[in-house]
Design a protein that fits this description.
8 helices; single chain; 24% strand; 32% helix; D-Maltodextrin-Binding Protein, domain 2; alpha+beta; Fructose-1,6-Bisphosphatase, Chain A, domain 1; 311 residues
């Protein structure tokens, strides 16, 4: 099933669509090293082109290893405050990111890397960039909730071309390569082309749908746009899930548990890869003109949510 495209917005002055394959203009900045330019396609024989299946195999192995470390270390995790003190980081975040970065630098020394904990590494002049969140859902992890995971995305110039999302407690992995579909595998399942292909399908009334909502750490409780958006979602849907772990939301979305994910000013490493996996599975995506609001989900749900938040 080919990726569904986003539908037109209804209020162009504030909220509108963006014509890129996954509807995520914020991805341009993160993937293109600040070029600010979106390219709709790249030549198949471009110089230095990466074998994306090989990259996916490596990312899957690294995500599973990071997830296993997180599960094994949770009882003894060392916790520190981060930023303004409201955010948390553990030694597991730092150690697993270090391992992932070291492995990627060995395999792809010319690639740039953007990690949640370590920031920018490598040259920003190259064609490829990795986005890494080694422990998505740190707050849940610290609380003892089995709602956390790993996100690894590879971008080529200004678009994501390969992504892996790993559900660490359940040891289930989801991944996609641009134009090749989305797949999932558990601990004992086959990987690669023999893995089950993900397909998002179905239809239903918005009032019967559960949607996930996620926001960036810099969004305050007094943000008026966020509060109006959340109020509309609660009134218009069956349930608004706030998991504090987008990796878990993406897993629920591509396996049929959610109708959509709504992201407001979210961190790029948690957003771009999951959106690629979802759209490769058949999801639609819609983005506000300013890039702050992104909705990804079943096409009928995305259409209904777009109307809900723009009317």
């Amino acid at each position: 099933m080919p990726p569904a495209r986003h539908a037109p917005g209804s209020r162009a002055s504030q909220l509108d669509t963006v014509s890129n394959p996954i509807g995520l203009p914020s991805a341009v900045e993160a993937c293109s090293a600040g070029s600010g330019r979106f390219s709709s396609s790249l030549a198949a024989d471009s110089v230095g082109r990466v074998d994306l299946q090989r990259a996916a195999d490596l990312a899957i192995a690294l995500a599973r290893e990071a997830g296993d470390v997180a599960v094994a270390e949770r009882a003894t995790a060392r916790i520190d405050a981060k930023g303004d003190g409201a955010d948390l980081v553990t030694h597991v975040d730092r150690e697993t990111e270090r391992r992932i970065v070291e492995a990627l630098r060995r395999a792809y020394p010319e690639h740039a890397i953007l990690g949640e904990e370590g920031g920018e590494q490598g040259s920003d002049e190259g064609e490829y960039r990795w986005l890494i969140d080694p422990l998505d859902g740190t707050h849940n992890y610290v609380l003892g909730l089995d709602v956390y995971g790993v996100c690894i995305t590879l971008c080529q110039r200004d678009r994501p071309v390969m992504a892996v999302v790993h559900d660490s407690p359940r040891r289930r992995t989801f991944w996609a390569i641009e134009g090749s579909g989305a797949f999932t595998a558990g601990d004992s399942d086959e990987s690669g082309s023999t893995a089950p292909r993900l397909v998002i399908e179905g239809a239903g009334a918005l009032a019967h749908e559960t949607v996930a909502f996620t926001q960036g750490y810099d969004v305050g409780h007094d943000d008026p746009r966020r509060n109006e958006l959340f109020d509309r979602l609660e009134r218009g849907t069956k349930r608004v899930l706030r998991s504090w772990a987008p990796s878990s939301d993406w897993a629920l979305l591509v396996t049929g548990g959610l109708g959509a994910l709504v992201a407001y000013r979210n961190e790029i490493w948690d957003l771009v890869g999951g959106a690629l996996i979802a759209t490769e599975a058949g999801a639609a995506s819609w983005t506000s003109a300013d890039g702050d609001l992104v909705i990804v989900g079943r096409p009928d749900v995305v259409t209904a949510l777009r109307e809900l938040v723009t009317r």
